[in-house]
Each structure stands twice: as structure tokens, then as C-alpha cells.
Structure prediction request, 396 residues.
Amino acid sequence: MEIEHSQHSFIQELALQSVQPVARSDDSYAKEERIQRGDTVAALLGRLGISDPDATKFLQTNRQAAPIFRQLSPGKSVAARVNTVGELQELNFPLNGSADTVLRVARTPHAFEVSELALQLDTHVVMKSAEIRYSLFGATDAADIPDSVAIGLADIFGGDIDFHRDLRKGDQFSVVYESLRHDGKPVRTGRILAAEFINNGKTYSAIWFETSPGRGGYYTSDGKNIRKAFLRSPLEFSRVTSGFTTARFHPVLKKWRAHKGTDFGAPVGTRVKATSDGVVEFVGWQGGYGKVVILRHQGRYTTLYGHLSGFASGMTKGRRVDQGDVIGFVGATGLASGPHLHYEFRINNVHQNPLAMALPAAPPLSPEQLARFNESRQPHLARIEMIRGNTLALLD
Prediction:
């Protein structure tokens, strides 16, 4: 049986109501622009929709606003609130060296005020995975993972994986990390919470665990400390330009001699890190080493960092340093043919090859800490399992 549907049109005249403008408590709007290469303050203000001679004059003459002219770094996001006639109401300008702080210029009834404001950041947990095609940074770029996370992965797994030589095409990794955001936009990354790296068929895992308030480290899924007492390399990324050998032709002295250290090629100014906790035994100039730092670790171990261009602030004899602390910067001082770091590893004053020897492990968790770790690890393991499964599905 068919059911017919009929349609009827009705037209009714309605009384026209008078239209009243909507009352607005704020006649301004927000806009955000990224600083472009070669930008001037005037060009930036123009793209933000600001046409305000009073604001422009204030920014040009106020000493507190000077960082806006000095810190026009390409890519930096600047936010402003502007009224309908182009007058600046508020400008928020991120300061260099502090991702959490902005310079705020705000209009008051009688003047402009400048202040530094700490951003209110929200923490979001991000889960990503990727496959190595050519390099670690290439893989993280392709997966939209920040460089800071790539550097963190190299730090975490650097005791087991030589990121200069051991990476293979097809290696895979998964990472869970914190993203700190303001108004929904990423400001910086926080801590890596968990990670898994499959290198040449072998799986390495790491879970962050806070051993005491403000201090912690990375452990395998069964609670073993993955941190070695020493890092393989004092540089985040570089290339080995001259290895440990009993016979090398010296490029400056032009003769054969033993090379009882490892040279890492890197640009001048690259940060040099302490490879282990220790105490500064020497800092200064020492013959062919040029500017050098020598650290003593656990009594019988010492490390040397030579040809530096300069030292980190506060580097004095007797100072304690932690593994990963910046102690100096790559240079070409002393008998150096070009910018590089000369690194030596000694046990009881006998030179060893740090890239070939088995490095000692860091202290394990106490029974009480291990019990707490076992309680807290499950959410991290579940996240790694989930993104690993997604990665395998995509690869299939």
C-alpha cells in the first residue's frame, strides 16, 4: 500500500519587530601573527591590524619595550587585541630564552603599561611513533615530533644505542611525552614519560620514575636502571672524526703518534656535556689541549674535554656537576686543525676507548622504590602498547 503525502503552503503576515543593536562589552578582537624573516616592528604591527600612532611611539621610546625590537625571531607567534579603529589594547610578545614568559603591553585609561607575565600552561600527554628512514631527526620531523623530544630519546637510549653509528633503516620507536600548552597552542615540551626503541631488531624500553621529590630517572619495564654511569658521547649529535688508536698521523704536528681519545666534529659553540656525575678537577688552558675541562668520577674514573672555545658559567675547580650538565663549548683551541671536541676516558689514569668498552651501570632501585615503580608503570606500558599496535597496523 502506498501512502501519499500532500503538501500545503501557508503564508502568514508577521509584524516586523524593531531591531536593536547587540550591546557589546568589548569592541576589540584578537589576532595572532608569526614573525617572518626580515620583519620590522612596523610590519608586524601592520599585519596585526594595529594603526595606532600612540602605541607605536610608546613602543619606540619605552625602555621596557625594547626586547620587542631586539628579539624579532622568525617563527615566533605574537598575539594582540585591537579595537575596531585599530588601537592597540594589548600585545603579548614571547621573550627569548623563556618559552613560558611574555612581555605584555597593555593600554590603561591614561597610558600604556609593560610587564612580564608567566603563561598559565596546561599539560597534555602526546603519543607518537615513527620509523627511521635516514636519521632520527628526519623521522621525528616526518612524524611532527619536536626536536627536543628527539634529543631526549638520544639522551635516554644513548648508553645502549650509538646514535652516530648504530641506527638502521627500518628501526622504529614510540614515545609518550608531555606537551605544555597555552590557549591550546604548544609552547614547549615537558618530560618524556615512556619510550620504546627497536634498533636492529632489539627492543629497548624506558619509563620515567620519580625516585624522590624532584629527582628521578628512566627504567626498563622490569625496573632496571637504563642509565649508565657514563654517556657514550659528550655531544648530543656529531660525527666521530678521529677514533681511539695507537697510531694516527697528527694533522698539526705532521707526525705519527697515538691518539688516546675520540674526536667529535661539531660547529664552534656546540654544547659539551659531562658524561657522568663528578667533580671538576681542572679547568683552564693545558698545552695542546687548549681550553680543557677534566672531571673526576667515582674515584678511579676521569674524563677530559679538550679544544674548547669556552667554559660554562661557574666552572671552577671543585665544583660538582651532574651527568648531562653543560660544562663547555666546542672550539679549536690548542693543537687543533679545526673545530671539534677531543674527549678522553681514563680508568686509574689509563686511557680507554669509550665507544668500545662496556660502561658501568647506575645504581638500581631500592626495594621500596621498586614496589612503587611496579604500581606506577602500567599506564605507561599500556600507552606504548597502543601506539606500537597502531604503527604495526600502518606498516602492514
